[in-house]
Design goal:
Number of helices: 15
CATH superfamily of the largest domain: NadA-like
Structural class: alpha/beta
Low-confidence stretches: none
CATH architecture of the largest domain: 3-Layer(aba) Sandwich
Distance between the termini: 32 Å
Radius of gyration: 20 Å
Order of helices and strands: HHEHEHEHEHEHEHEHEHEHEHEHEHH
Mean pLDDT: 95
Largest sheet: 4 strands, parallel
Bound molecules: 1,3-dihydroxyacetonephosphate, iron/sulfur cluster
Oligomer: single chain
Helix content: 40-55%
Strand content: 5-15%
């Protein structure tokens, strides 16, 4: 029997028994997308059934912010976490932005509030505030400019100042500080997924697999990054694998990403230290279908707060060169 379009997308990506379960859901989602003029915008950490099965556009946080601003669709289902959906709404205020599970949060976004940023501004008057997009709309609204892991260094250096406050990821901030002469004042935030990797486990891979390449996300602690051959955003890591075609690679980031990239890189063997993001994993084919079926959960942002947040996001987009989606 000829495979359906949904089955074709997943052949060789997930086991055949799982395809049988996923294919009808994918078909339902495709029909709902057509009915509502909707698209699914998916982060690179989505599971392969979502990433290869229903995502219309996919990428890292930077690409998702740009793609949300550019799409002609009326409805965006953000298959990712809440701050990504909020950023899409800030970038595209006239569109309906849906997130399939409201509890898909982020440990970094939870580490800081708008009131914290106001206190920092009092303590360091005149020092520009560079804020990672993994934050709430209130925190972005108090900031001078946003950044992502893909452009943090570029954004910090674009300001032409000696000192910046960098919020909230201390490890990304430390990585930026290690690459620039700009003094970086840090906040005590971290990613619950990337802080669990250790330098010892990476050395174990190096010792047991001669020639293995190690690539890491800059949310990892400094001793982990010191073991890496390449440090980059999720899209940066994907591009690196496709360009370098290493024989064996360890991707030091959320583990669904290796599954997604492996499907498109048959000559590369992926060694998989696996830390899952519990927030990203809240998004499923079932709740994407329900999100389109019932119009839930709509992301709303206070227009006045969103206006200020948008300025910080737009400044970032103006600094950074246009990336391509993964
Ligand atoms: P990227 O912008 O690199 O995709 O990272 C987002 C994220 O949440 C990493 O944990
Ligand atoms: Fe947040 Fe870390 Fe999950 Fe990314 S992986 S969404 S930074 S908790």
């Amino acid at each position: 029997m000829t495979p359906s379009l949904a089955e074709e997308r997943l052949l060789g990506v997930i086991p055949e028994l799982e395809i049988a379960v996923a294919a009808p859901l994918i078909q339902e989602i495709e029909e709902l997308k057509r009915k509502h003029n909707a698209i699914v915008l998916a982060h690179n950490y989505m599971t392969p059934d979502i990433f290869h099965g229903v995502a219309d556009l996919k990428g890292d946080s930077l690409a998702l912010a740009r793609l949300a601003a550019d799409t002609d669709a009326e409805v965006i289902v953000l298959a990712g976490v809440h701050f990504m959906a909020e950023t899409a709404k800030i970038a595209s205020p006239d569109k309906t932005v849906l997130i399939p599970d409201l509890d898909a949060g982020c440990s970094l976004a939870e580490s800081i509030t708008g009131a914290d940023v106001r206190l920092l501004k009092e303590r360091y008057p005149g020092v520009p505030i560079v804020t990672y997009v993994n934050t709430s709309v209130e925190v972005k609204a108090e900031s001078d400019v946003c950044c992502t892991s893909g452009n943090a260094l570029e954004v910090v250096e674009s300001l032409g100042v000696d000192r910046v406050i960098f919020l909230p990821d201390k490890y990304l901030g430390q990585w930026v500080a290690s690459q620039t002469s700009v003094e970086v004042i840090l906040w005590e935030g971290s990613c619950m997924v990337h802080e669990r990797f250790t330098a010892a486990e990476l050395r174990m891979y190096r010792d047991t697999v001669p020639g293995v390449q190690i690539i890491a996300h800059p949310e990892c602690p400094p001793d982990v990054l010191a073991e890496a051959d390449f440090v980059g955003s999720t899209a940066g890591m994907i591009d690196w694998v496709h360009a370098e075609q290493p024989r064996q690679v360890v991707m030091v980031t959320e583990c669904s990403m290796a599954d997604n990239v492996a499907a498109d890189a048959p000559n590369v063997e992926f060694l998989r230290p696996c830390n899952l993001c519990p927030h990203m994993k809240r998004i499923t084919l079932e709740n994407i279908r329900d999100s389109l079926l019932y119009g839930r959960y709509e992301v709303e942002v206070d227009p006045a707060v969103a206006h200020h947040a948008r300025l910080a996001v737009d400044r970032m987009l103006a600094v950074s060169a246009r990336p391509r989606a993964a």
